[in-house]
Amino acid sequence: MYFSLPQEYRQASQDELRDRIQAARQKLGNKLCILTHHYQRVEIVELGDHSGDSYGLSKIAASQQDVEVIMFCGVHFMAESADILTSDKQMVYLPNPLAGCPMADMAEMADVLEAWKYLEPFGGADRIMPMSYMNTTAGLKAFTGKNGGVICTSSNASAAYEYAFKRREKIFFFPDENLGFNTGIKYGLKPEEMVLWDFSRERGGLSEEAIDRAKVILWKGHCHVHTTFTVEQVKQVRAEHPDARVIVHPECTPDVVQAADGNGSTKFIVEYCEKAPSGSTIAIGTEINLINRMAQTYPDKKIFELSGQTCPVCANMYRTTLGDLAFALENHQDIKPIRVNEETRGDALVALEKMLEIAS
Predict the structure, then answer these.
(1) Whose CA is closest to 358, among 63, 23, 59, 3?
(2) Strand 194-197 relative to strand 245-248, pairing
(3) Confidence of residue 298 (pLDDT cuts 50, 70, 90)
(4) Mean pLDDT of 177-182
(5) What is the extent of the structural domain holding 295?
(6) Please, are residues 328 and 93 in contact by the beta-carbon 8 Å criterion?
(7) I need a surface site. Which of 55, 77, 259, 313 has the fewest CB within 10 A?
(8) Does 187 share its domain with 285?
(9) Do residues 22 and 90 both lie within one domain?
(10) Which residues on adjacent β-strands are paired with residue 133?
(11) CB-CB contact of 75 with 101 (8 Å)
């Protein structure tokens, strides 16, 4: 996909772009809704009608029945989900169409279908429930729905595990091995009850005995942002800030999650910062834009990034600029909205509606 923002939007000042965005918003009135993910730039979040994590924004998108134009400041899989959950009369736009997700790309349809075919002799959909993390393409969400599975997010992963194990013996979880493993531990599973399917190896690199014994089959995939954090960084923070609380996202590696004081979705992290007493010291292991925004929002608390040296930025979330949003708002009638084909949409909707139902 090729996208080049017109020069006038690249050269305009931040103030001019804000003015143009507000003018376009006023013109569209109640027909417009701007959704912004927590990892977006501060200046983008400030202009959103609603901010949240992928689960929260999905719920909001599903509820916007009277809105005609939805500007989703996030990444591609989020905008796809919003399109699936809204009516045909509503248009969902991704201000920067190049905003993808490397983790989602780690689970390609052909690889997942090959793995599922191999798992069929072990019971297939009768014994195994496919569980697709929100960070997947619409096609894989459709595969999940078609096989009686469910979508999960970091907000509802524990509830999704409970839902799955009441109905099937095993879970086939993709694409984030760390969220899948950490959720399994939280649910009460033992590490040896979870195995890793390596899509680059024949038969996933697993023996028949390992698959038969496993309760969760994890896909080999990860978030490059959250795997930058280490146990050594947690130890250093504790040494330098004895009163600090370390809070991380469950996409971090299991040893980091275990070493932290708490872990949870971006919504959990936002609420933790909000509720923490004045004077609290909080080291956070997640995306840098969210951390910076929390530090600005709560100046009475010492909030900083866990590693202290890396810059854990989600480059794809960071792609969306004020120029992108201004261009999309002023030209939405001439640009292509995010559209999921009807066949894919139908099966994916089944799984997404289960996701919303589970956590309600």
Answers:
(1) 59
(2) unpaired
(3) very high
(4) 98
(5) 226-313
(6) yes
(7) 313
(8) no
(9) yes
(10) 152
(11) yes
Q: Answer yes or no: is 123 within a domain.
A: yes
CA-CA distance, 358 to 355, in Å (whole number)?
A: 5
The pair of three-digit structure tokens given for residue 270, joined into one six-digit string = 């936002």
Torsion angle of C-alpha atoms 189, 195, 196, 197, degrees rounded to 10: -130
Please confirm whether the linkage preceding 175 is cis (ω < 30° from 0): yes
Residue 132 pLDDT greater than 70, yes or no: yes
Strands 50-52 and 32-37: parallel
Q: Is the pLDDT of residue 86 over 70?
A: yes
Residue pLDDT, tens place only, 332-344: 999 999 999 999 9
Which residues, listed in sequence order, are joined to residue 32 by a DSSP beta bridge?
Answer: 69
**113 and 179: one domain?**
yes
Domain holding 271: CATH number?
3.40.50.10800
By percentage, how much of the chain surpasses pLDDT 70? 99
299 assigned to some structural domain: yes
Structure tokens at 222: 């990860």
Q: Rounded distance, CA 267 to CA 286, Å?
A: 12
| Residues 60, 32 share a domain | yes
The reply to whether 291 falls in a domain is yes
Same structural domain, 127 and 203 = yes
* Residues 181, 252 within the same domain: no
What secondary structure does DSSP assign to 38-100, as a single string? TTS-HHHHTT-SEEE-HHHHHHHHHH-TT-SEEEEES-HHHHHHHHHHS-TT-EEE-SSTT--
Per residue in 94-120, is it b (16+ CB within 10 Å) or e — as a string?
bbbbebbbbbbebbeeebbeebbebbe
In a domain, 356, yes or no: no
DSSP bridge partners of 33: 70
- Separation between Cα atoms, residue 76 and residue 72, nearest integer Å: 9
